[in-house]
User: Fold this.
Amino acid sequence: MAMHLDIVTPEKKVFSGFVDNVYLPGADGEMGILPQHAGLVSALQAGELRYLHNGEVGTLAVGSGFAEITQEKVVVLTDMALGEEEIDEEETEKALERAKEKLHDQEHDLDAEEVANLQALIAKQMAALSFKRKRRH
Assistant:
C-alpha cells in the first residue's frame, strides 16, 4: 500500500509520486507517516525529510513549513528542499557565518521580524550543512 507525496517550495514542485513512508522533521520532533495515517496538519522545522520510493530512500534537507497529512496523501509546503548535490558546503558555511554575524552585530538595531528572518535563515543553513556532512560520512 502506498500514499502520494508532494513536496513543494515557492519555486517548484520538488517531488511528486507514490511512496511507502515519509519521515518529517516536525515542530515537536521527527514524525513517521505510513499509509492510512490519521489526518493532521503539522508545522515543520528545518531538518531532514526521508521517504521510501520504489525501494529507494530519498532524502532532502528542508526548511520550515507545513505538512498536510491524510490517509492517502502527504503534502509538504516548505521554503527550502535541497538534495545533497544541490548543497555547496563552502557557500552554505559562508552564508551561515554572515547571518550569524549580522544577528550578533546588529541585534539591537533589528526589529522582531528581521531577527526572526535571520534565525530562520540560520536554521535552514545549519540543516543543510548537517544534511550534507551526514551524507559525506
In short: The first strand starts at residue 3 and ends at 8.
